[in-house]
């Protein structure tokens, strides 16, 4: 059994990651999407095996990752994946970039809903297309994430009417943590189909759907959605191994798959590593027990954070998400302006992602990474309170 409280800040810094080393030891890093947990045993064993055989030549990409992902998706995500329509790519953002290029006409826009995982705002430009921002609709004061955030379906329809032909979906949604409902996504599918468009669905956070909630893959919404859906994922986020590149792009029709492999440039598909491939196979096939443990720990941290914020931080609003290990903290009433994360970093030496990095409607929010130990979480929450007390 993994001890999810085992690692200290010193041990985490010694791993050499960006999260723990970009700033000095006086700053507690609870920002970028990396977990503070020991690697899953099956993944560690797979990596040891690659190292022992010095398996560092050009990777032979076969169907083991697609088959392992398809089994995992059926077992844990309620999702049908055809390994024959699944292509291995270097990493998720690379897969999104290729999919945008293949499935969006050259002069068409790409809808990005905000607040957005920041790279989504950049990717369309990398393929010489315009990112068309459509902010999520917010219901102020809502008690649950499902009530709080909604796709602006009218805004999305307008964007497609004005020439957009694809949309980057994040299901579950980084940063707000929502798993969109079937009704909401079915309506999205009707709009996209009307314009012969595509939905590029980044589902990297799907395995991190919290125990009481169920993931809903966009491809599972209905046949219309499946016919224009590109699903992109990797075990890298849910098993915290983003330094081991390997991801998958799945289409849900033969025609979609043919279009993808015919139009994607082979040089762009190339780049998954032997370590990434073996780590993904090991995680998808043998990682369930570790993942269950990680999810239980994250759920505990969500409850702990919610209780702390409600009791100690009257100017902060925290609506726990359905999924991901992020708390999307609303500090708009805290009197710290558009970038409260800068104040908290300065006064509390706690590093969260500034909400404004996720788009204009993220201003006044901070994204706090909860995939950590109890001791680090308590330290982080204490620093947040100290920073707010210093106003
Ligand atoms: C929604 C989402 N997509 C993609 C990524 C990055 O994936 P990759 O490192 O495989 O490109 C992240 C990382 O945090 C993410 O949150």
Automatic annotation (TrEMBL):
Keyword Zinc: no
Record-linked InterPro entries: Aminotransferase_I/II_large, Class-II_PLP-Dep_Aminotrans, PyrdxlP-dep_Trfase, PyrdxlP-dep_Trfase_major, PyrdxlP-dep_Trfase_small
Keyword terms of this UniProt record: Lyase, Pyridoxal phosphate
Cofactor: pyridoxal 5'-phosphate
Pfam families in alphabetical order: Aminotran_1_2
EC numbers on record: 4.4.1.13
Enzyme class: lyase
GO molecular function: cysteine-S-conjugate beta-lyase activity; pyridoxal phosphate binding
Family: Belongs to the class-II pyridoxal-phosphate-dependent aminotransferase family. MalY/PatB cystathionine beta-lyase subfamily.
PANTHER family, per database record: CYSTATHIONINE BETA-LYASE-RELATED, PROTEIN MALY
Name the UniProt record assigns to this protein: cysteine-S-conjugate beta-lyase
């Amino acid at each position: 059994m993994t001890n999810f409280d085992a690692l200290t800040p010193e041990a985490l810094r010694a791993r050499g990651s960006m999260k723990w080393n970009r700033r000095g030891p006086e700053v507690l890093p609870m920002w970028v999407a990396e977990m503070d947990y020991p690697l899953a045993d099956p993944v560690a064993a797979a990596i040891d095996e690659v190292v022992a055989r010095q398996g560092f030549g050009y990777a032979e990409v076969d169907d083991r990752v697609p088959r392992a992902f398809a089994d995992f998706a059926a077992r844990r995500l309620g999702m049908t994946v055809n390994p024959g329509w699944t292509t291995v790519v270097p990493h998720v953002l690379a897969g999104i970039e290729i999919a945008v290029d293949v499935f969006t006409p050259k002069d068409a826009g790409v809808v990005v809903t905000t607040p957005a995982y920041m790279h989504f705002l950049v990717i369309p430009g990398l393929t010489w297309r315009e990112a068309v921002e459509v902010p999520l609709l917010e219901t102020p004061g809502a008690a649950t994430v499902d009530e709080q955030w909604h796709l602006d379906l009218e805004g999305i329809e307008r964007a497609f009417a004005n020439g957009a032909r694809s949309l980057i979906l994040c299901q579950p949604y980084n940063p707000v943590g929502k798993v969109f409902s079937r009704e909401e996504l079915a309506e999205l599918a009707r709009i996209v189909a009307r314009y012969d468009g595509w939905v590029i669905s980044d589902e990297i956070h799907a395995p991190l759907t919290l125990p009481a909630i169920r993931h809903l893959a966009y491809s599972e919404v209905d046949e219309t959605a499946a016919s224009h859906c590109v699903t992109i994922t990797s075990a890298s986020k849910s098993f915290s191994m983003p330094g081991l590149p390997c991801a998958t792009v799945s289409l849900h029709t033969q025609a979609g798959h043919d279009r993808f492999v015919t139009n994607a440039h082979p040089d762009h598909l190339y780049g998954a590593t032997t370590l990434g491939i073996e780590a993904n196979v090991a995680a998808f096939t043998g990682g369930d027990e570790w993942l269950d443990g990680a999810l239980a720990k994250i759920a505990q941290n969500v409850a702990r954070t919610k209780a702390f914020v409600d009791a100690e931080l009257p100017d902060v609003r925290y609506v726990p998400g359905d999924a991901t290990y992020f708390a999307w903290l609303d500090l708009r009433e805290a009197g710290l302006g558009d970038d409260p994360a800068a104040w908290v970093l300065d006064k509390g030496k706690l590093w969260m992602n500034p909400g404004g990095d996720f788009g204009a409607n993220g201003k006044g929010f901070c994204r706090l990474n909860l995939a950590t130990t109890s001791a680090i979480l308590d330290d982080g929450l204490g620093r947040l309170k100290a920073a707010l007390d210093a106003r």
